[in-house]
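Record type: monomer structure entry
Structure origin: computed from sequence
Chain ID: A
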Amino acid sequence: MNVNTPVNESSAPSDNDPNRIPVEEFVPAEVSELDLYQKREKIYTRKIEGYFQRLRTLTGWPLLMGYFLLPWLQWDGRQSVLFDLPARQFNVLGLTFWPQDLTMLAWLLIIAAFALFTVTNFAGRVWCGFSCPQTVWTSIFMWIEQKIEGSRNQRIKLDASPWSANKFAKKFIKHSMWLAVAFYTGFTFVGYFTPIIDLSYGFFTLDIHPWAVFWIAFFTLATYGNAGWLREQVCIYMCPYARFQSAMFDPDTLIISYDQKRGEKRGSRKRNEQSADVGLGDCIDCQLCVQVCPTGIDIRDGLQYQCIGCALCVDACNSVMEKMHYPKDLISYTTENTLAGKPSKILRPRLLGYISAVVIMCGLLTYRIADRDTIELGVLRDRQALYYQQENGDIDNRYTLKVANKTQQSHRYQLSVVAPKELKLIGSIEFQVLSGEVVDIPITLRAEAQQQVRGAFDIEFKAQRLDTDNDIVSHKSRFFSPSE
């Protein structure tokens, strides 16, 4: 009986039928038992050199250098990148952002998402394989492992051997170096939120805030676990990008593929033998493409969501093709249309749409940053009374002006008021605000008795930086007086 053929009640044998076959025999084993989580089998990757691995080095080092060095650089006497949460200031390379500017952060995240979609539509998961922090840090940990424990075969042999002084020493050194890299990673991350020089001084003098200790420990363990132990499981099970990346693919997307027409039938042969002479394809079934894969897949089985596009299998296969004197690119970056013998297009509607969206959003964000106010002015009216009438008939309205200097330099400012009636401004008309400071300035507006001001009307406060004519900010309010 075909197990895939449905059985209706009339044709199915009854429970009392002596010829009845148990239901379990109709169900294949792989259907009757389902593992929701497969136990991890350790992947022993083989070291390989090649064009794409040199390219990965060039893309990975800028990320590492930028991450570890930026907090230590100084810009106009302050840390170049510092997200000062208690002060609600975000200093980025000479620019100071405030909580009111967080809309620009949303813009930046949207731009980053569309940029990722653009790159994915054009060249698949090159971000995952070349610049993703998980990939870069995992590569560092794997490099340390290879330097201490040896080649792939040596690591397999070491793990299979019983514990000894030599094995313990190698494991201890490896994990110590992993923890050292993880600690510096966590320490640097906290240094983006706490002045890193003060953090370093406090760490070595044991005068460090408990919360700083907690977050350094947290990110140290997270880095150690993700890059040292979980590795490919982060990409396969935890990262959502692997699950929806195919929605951005099209037949012209560059993906890593195996040329089945050229490679099949697989089989080993002598080095100088041509494929046609032995009746085989160009694939010699050396398994090198599987041994170098950080996620442990066989790219010859077709495109799989576990593939991160790192091109290790491309370099491995090309090295074998060179030795066999065969043409390269049996495994290569190619498109589905190219493999099918169809013309492939670089520019297509979806890709042009992504590029246009990124360019427009980058332009708007640049304009928003360049046009943002470097002064922030807020006005609070006195809540005790709408107005105060003096004995001589003068009418006073009291306000508190909040002036924020959003630049990284100290400036002097001048206040003025625009109103349909003549009002006298009493208080500090000129004042100085330090970099990143918010000052409260009490101001009184007076309508003298001879002006015969009656009723309520709109007014506008203005604050102007004295060393420039262009930096002016305003805020509207109301002036109240007796109606009669």
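Annotation 1: The radius of gyration is 34 Å.
Annotation 2: Confidence is low (pLDDT under 50) at residues 1-15, 17-32.
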